[in-house]
Amino acid sequence: MARYVTTDLHGCLLSFRHLVEEKLKLTPQDELYVLGDYVNKGPDSRGVLDYLMQLPERGYRVVCLRGNHDHDLLKAAQGEITLTWGSVADRELTLHSFGVEQPEDIPERYLRWINDLPYQFEIPGFILVHAGFDFRLPPDKMRQDWPTMLTTKSFVYDASRTGGLRLVHGHVPTPTTEVEAHVKAERGAIGLDTGCVYRHNPELRHLAALDLDANKLYLQPNIEPAYTIGVR
Question: Most Cβ neighbours (<10 Å): which of 8, 60, 108, 141?
Answer without folding.
Answer: 8
